[in-house]
Amino acid sequence: MTTPLLTVDNLKTQFFTEDGTVRAVDGISFDVYPGEIVGLVGESGAGKSVATSSILRLVDSPGEIVDGTITFKEKTLFGLEAGPDGEPRPSEEMLTEEEMRKEVRGREIAIIFQDPMESLNPVFTVGGQLREFIELNRDLPTEEAKQEAIDMLREVGIPDPENRYDEYPHQFSGGMRQRVLIAMAIACRPDLIIADEPTTALDVTVEGQILELVAELQEKYDTAFIWVTHDMSVVAEICDRVNVMYLGEIIEQAHVDDLFYNTKHPYTQALLNSIPRPDETIEELDPIKGVMPEAINPPSGCRFHSRCPEAREVCQRVHPEPRDLSANDRPHNAACVKYDVFDVGYDASPPLETDATGGFSAGLTQTESEAEADGGDR
Ligand SMILES: Nc1ncnc2c1ncn2[C@@H]1O[C@H](COP(=O)(O)OP(=O)(O)O)[C@@H](O)[C@H]1O
Ligand code: SF4
Ligand SMILES: [Mg+2]
Question: Which of 10, 176, 235, 355 could join 289 in a cystine, given CB atoms 3.0 to 4.6 angstroms apart?
Fold first, then answer.
């Protein structure tokens, strides 16, 4: 059995704001094996970006990683130990900021953002930036780095790379800019690439092309990916294993086939119901009711209870822990009290009225009363 490339254990990242503590990432654990594509999926605000920036220790103030361990190739990217006063302090093994910058970020773990302009400088040519990045990170002489940059542009499907090398980012389309970022990400042959919704702003056709390119490159270089998305169709297309996040927690973890065909968690099911599937008609699409609550003071019990179509009274009280529900040799776990039958009495508990069951569907009531206020009797 191979060992994981990356292990995230009980990671907690919080933002200390005037309104209170935002528990953006609240005790997540997952790992990534060499060469696999691991999905991190969930609606906006679930904590996906904070989780990935925590891995690279790029959380901005007032944010802070407050607990957990992050291990990458036997290096401790984050870890705590008890100090002389009993208070936690960075562990002795934890890499320094300088080691993170020089050894890890960009070289061993690269990141691709949704907005390429976060990574590309508009006043320098695309080729020049790529060349400089290669020169710096791979200690290559300028001419060699330039040739490598042109080769990389060609590799990611930029037509006529010799000439486009001298163009500026604004002369590239969104899809082409994302290809440049992919070139930059793979330029140092990292073991892991974190892709934070890189195709979200692109139209579906371009998105499909980029996903195809990534799949090709992944195979060629055997790079592992953490693929962040809110879109289950993207997950289906590209991921090997998936972590589903809701309000700072991972609520289901499974191989992609098990997630789609043996779905365990009602939130995962709700995400799946909201995307088109080849075996269903568009009319059957069912968007998730309600909105995700704030990560300050998250709901008691199961955090999904206010929107869950299967919620029962007990769900308000009991916080479900992940349970192993594997039906084959692949790990599969979900955190839902349904699977705690004998302990907490889900079956005996009365149903709970929620956004999904029409109980407190504020959105609908508002729309109706607004229609009345408009004087309409439609
Ligand atoms: N700088 C910040 N200050 C306060 N809260 C933040 C900050 N950045 C993110 N958050 C909060 O952390 C939570 C998770 O955000 P994020 O990881 O960006 O979600 P996702 O990427 O899944 O859409 C959200 O509730 C968001 O409001
Ligand atoms: S614990 Fe209850 S509210 Fe949460 S997902 Fe399961 S059934 Fe729904
Ligand atoms: Mg995000």
Answer: 355
Question: Residue with structure tokens 């109706």?
Answer: 368
Q: Within the chain, what is the greatest distance between any pair of CA atoms? A: 74
C-alpha torsion sign, points 184, 231, 228, 64: positive
Q: What is the DSSP letter of 203?
A: -
- Whole-number Å distance, alpha carbon 45 to ligand 1 midpoint, is 6
Which ligand is in closest contact with the Cα of 299? 2
Question: Could you tell me the CA-to-CA distances from 171 to 125, 126, 165, 183 in Å, in that order?
Answer: 10, 9, 11, 17
Measured distance CA(9)–CA(5) in Å, rounded = 13
Predicted local distance difference test score (pLDDT) of residue 364: 34
User: Which residues of the chain register pLDDT less than 70?
Assistant: 1, 277-284, 341-342, 358-378
What is the Å distance from ligand 3's center to 44 Cα? 6
Q: Cα separation of 57 and 32, whole Å?
A: 17
Query: Counting atoms of ligand 1 from 1, which one is nearest the CA of 295?
Result: 25
- Cα 155 from chain centroid? 26
Query: Residue 2: what pLDDT?
Result: 86
Give the separation between CA 148 and CA 131, rounded to whole angstroms: 8
The radius of gyration computed from the CA coordinates of the chain, to the nearest angstrom, equals 23
What is d(CA 44, CA 131) in angstroms, rounded to the nearest whole number? Answer: 34
Residue 107 vs residues 213, 216, 252, 273, 285: alpha-carbon distances, Å: 21, 20, 31, 39, 42
Residue 23, ligand 2, Cβ within 6 A: no
**Residue 358: its pLDDT value, please?**
59
* Rounded percentage of the chain residues whose pLDDT exceeds 90: 78
Residue written as token pair 């220790």? 57
The whole-number pLDDT of residue 85 equals 92
Which residue among 252, 336, 353 is best mutated to probe the pocket of ligand 2, counting the most ligand atoms within 8 A of its Cβ?
336
Provide the token pair at 269: 């099911």
Closest to 36 (Cα-Cα) out of 223, 259, 257, 260: 223
Instruction: Report the nearest-CA residue for atom 6 of ligand 2.
Output: 336
